[in-house]
Structure formats: structure tokens, C-alpha cells
């Protein structure tokens, strides 16, 4: 039982007691004798008793009502602060996206992809890495499960891969029997085609992007002041900010090891966070195999 409900119950109890006491006393034969003249001394005693006993009860009720009102007001203030912080984080999300500046992965193209266009480049890069891992897995018959394939490709996509960085990536994928071997194959492919920078790092732009996103959802989800319906509506507002390429990267992010907390808290399913991902847009994997939620194209 929370404090608000507890106070309300106490107020009701004292209010009922005070009301019953009021009517009991004014109709009591002790003080009122109908048809007789008023006894001034008795009336004086009645006034003292009434104000002392019943008046005290109503005073207690009044004080409790003030406390209840202040507590309710405090809840509303804290709730407004939480929602306000959520929208600040949403503003930061949009600002973060606007600040992105990403050269094309093809070094022969001099285009600079800004804002959400950067995620188109992210998508192209990650897709190529996934294709390489899938192809090598099939050729060598490693029998890697889908999540392992995604995790290895996403590690390289996120941290980048070159000859000076391979030991770090190998440590990350050492949990998989064929992880380091697959990373070496990826490095060979990257080194053999320097014109396409599929081994470049993307952690600088994406680290704060996903931390802020997770923090905003966690802020709303863990709030005890916001109703479940209000939580869904707030997360829906955040979801509406995401472009299709952003949803693409988000999907693979939460399937990789970076999605551990997301999945532990069930955020993707609970709030249908990738609901707007178009059918077939994830290319090589079906989101439905990982998150059984109603997708927009199915409605």
C-alpha cells in the first residue's frame, strides 16, 4: 500500500468517526431534553465538550487533508520532472542524430552523409559485414547460430577492424569456437579491398546514441509515478522519431551482446520498439524470429 492510499484511508476513517460523533452528541439525551428550557450550564459544558472532542477530530481530518494535498502535489511535480527529463533526452537524441557527419564507405565517393543519412551508410556497412560472415560460415560449415553471426559482424561494425586492432576484437569474439578465425577472414577481406571501408569504427557516434536511448526508456519504465498506458505512449513518441535505417541498426544492436540489458528488461517486446521496421528491411534475418511482436506491416 503506497502513502497516498494510506493517507486517504486514514482521512476517510477519521472523517466517518468525526461525523458519527457529531450526530451522536447533538442528539444525545445527555445534553438535549426536548420540550424543556435550555440549561445554560449544561449548554456551556456541551460547547466545551463538543469543541474539544468533535472539533479535534475535524481538525485532525483537516490536517490530514492538507498532508494528502501536499503529497499529491509532490507526486505530480516529480512526475512532471520525470516526463520533462524524458523529453530532454528525446531532444538530445534528435540533436545527436543531427550532429552526425559520416563519409561514404566508398572512398571514391566524396559525399558526406549528415544526420539520418549517416544511418544509411551504417546499414550498408553492417549488411556487407553480415554477408561476409554468413558466406564464410556456409563455406566452412561452422554451423554458427544466427545470434553468433550477428554478434561477430556487429562487433566489427561497432569497434572497427584493422591490423592494429585485431587483438582487441579477438578478445571480444573469443567466446565463440570459430570467432577469431572469422575475424581473421574479415580482416583479409577488408585488407583486400581498401576502397570500401567496411572495417571502419562507428563507436564514436553510436555509443552515446544508444546509451541515451536506453536511458530514456529505462527512466520511463522504472518510474512508479507514470501509469502503464502513459509509459507506452511516451515510448511510442520516442519510437516515432526513428527512421528505417535507425531501426535496422537498432535491431542488430539489441540482438548482439549490446542488447543484453534491453532483452533482460524486455524493452523491445514490452514497448514494441521495433514495430515500425518494414517487412524484409532487415535483409538477412527476420526480426519476427527474435521478437514476436505485431509489426506495422502486419496490421
From TrEMBL:
Q: Which Pfam families is this protein grouped with?
A: putAbiC
Transmembrane stretches in the record are 7-27, 47-68
Q: What protein name is recorded for this chain? A: Phage abortive infection protein
Which of UniProt's keywords are assigned here?
Answer: Membrane, Transmembrane, Transmembrane helix
Q: Which InterPro entries match?
A: PutAbiC
Amino acid at each position: 500500500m503506497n502513502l497516498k492510499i494510506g493517507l486517504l484511508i486514514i482521512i476517510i476513517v477519521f472523517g466517518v468517526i468525526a461525523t458519527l460523533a457529531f450526530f451522536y452528541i447533538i442528539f444525545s439525551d445527555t445534553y438535549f431534553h426536548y420540550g424543556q428550557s435550555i440549561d445554560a450550564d449544561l449548554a456551556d459544558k456541551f460547547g466545551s465538550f463538543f469543541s474539544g472532542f468533535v472539533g479535534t477530530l475535524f481538525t485532525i481530518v483537516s490536517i490530514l487533508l492538507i498532508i494528502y494535498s501536499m503529497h499529491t502535489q509532490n507526486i505530480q511535480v516529480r512526475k512532471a520532472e520525470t516526463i520533462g527529463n524524458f523529453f530532454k533526452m528525446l531532444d538530445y537524441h534528435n540533436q545527436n542524430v543531427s550532429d552526425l557527419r559520416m563519409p561514404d564507405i566508398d572512398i571514391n565517393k566524396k559525399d558526406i552523409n549528415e544526420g539520418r543519412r549517416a544511418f544509411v551508410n551504417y546499414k550498408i556497412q553492417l549488411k556487407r559485414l553480415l554477408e561476409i560472415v554468413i558466406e564464410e560460415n556456409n563455406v566452412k560449415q561452422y554451423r554458427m547460430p544466427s545470434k553468433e553471426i550477428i554478434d561477430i559482424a556487429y562487433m566489427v561494425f561497432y569497434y572497427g577492424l584493422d591490423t592494429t586492432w585485431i587483438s582487441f576484437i579477438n578478445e571480444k569474439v573469443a567466446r565463440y569456437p570459430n570467432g577469431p578465425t572469422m575475424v581473421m577472414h574479415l580482416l583479409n577481406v577488408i585488407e583486400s579491398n581498401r576502397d570500401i571501408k567496411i572495417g571502419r569504427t562507428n563507436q564514436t557516434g553510436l555509443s552515446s546514441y544508444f546509451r541515451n536511448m536506453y536511458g530514456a526508456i529505462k527512466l520511463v519504465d522504472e518510474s512508479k509515478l507514470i501509469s502503464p498506458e502513459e509509459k507506452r505512449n511516451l515510448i511510442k513518441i520516442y519510437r516515432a522519431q526513428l527512421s528505417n535505417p535507425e531501426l535496422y541498426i537498432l535491431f542488430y544492436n539489441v540482438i548482439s551482446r549490446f542488447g543484453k540489458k534491453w532483452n533482460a528488461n524486455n524493452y523491445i517486446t514490452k514497448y514494441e520498439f521495433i514495430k515500425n521496421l518494414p517487412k524484409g528491411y532487415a535483409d538477412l534475418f527476420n526480426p519476427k524470429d527474435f521478437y514476436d511482436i505485431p509489426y506495422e506491416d502486419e496490421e
